[in-house]
Amino acid sequence: MAENDRVSLKIFEGDCIALTGDNEALNSGLLNVLAGQTTVQSGTKTIYPLLPQNDTENDAEKLVHRPLAMLVSARHHFKNVSNTSNFYYQQRFNSMDANNALTVAAYLAVRAANPNGTLAVIDNLVSDLKLASLLDKELIKLSNGETRRVLIAAALLASPQLLLLHNPLAGLDTVSRQQITALISKLANQLLAIVLTCSPFKLPAGVTSVGVANVGKPWLYTPVQNFNTAKHKPVQIAINQPLLISLWNQTETPLFDTMVQMKNVNIRYGDKVLLNNIN
Questions:
Q1: What is the CATH number of the domain that holds 135?
Q2: Which secondary structure element, helix H or strand E, spans residue 24, and what is its range?
Q3: Model pTM?
């Protein structure tokens, strides 16, 4: 670990910490350390379990079964119905393979098979994450935004004290980003602690502090109100315009009027219309 990669961080109940900067490897590694998936090379990591207020012996016993941290990755790791193999990217386009997948309701029911995953908890999560319309849908048929919401619901079923989100807004459309951002803001107002990675220009509402990891620069940690986005502009890469033009001119461009043409194109999966009479 380089001197600039040395990180000191304390996370308290109710914190919502955004990890950003161009050192994605360090930020991802930090999430993995917090999740217990990677060991630290030097220094120490200590997590103190927090008992509920006015805790009793029963509360303390329940905490033994409660994971301290749950990590929601940017990519899912769904398996087929028989739990023998992972889905592959094109699987949703093959109807026979797509049918070999759990529905959202079945997946959440499996994930709720722990002391904290009660039916009432599932009902609350379905409402908060707007999953009601997805319950009968196979996992492999979910969009990126829908998948992200289901994964967060599955993580919350375990009632963790620390929720770790790896780029929760990456690859989402505007509506999905708004839904996930609203959820993060709501969770941040509860006693759950959240650590997430994101772009410095897309900090979700509810973030309380920001950790900045840039390659070759010291780790920076600051309250969100002191974080200046203007200081974290993307690196501008100089383009050799003469070289680019010379390379472009080496190949003669064929002349044509139409490259791609579509007439009255329709695409539908069951009741879901993706394209409707597109020209």
A1: 3.40.50.300
A2: helix 24-34
A3: 0.70
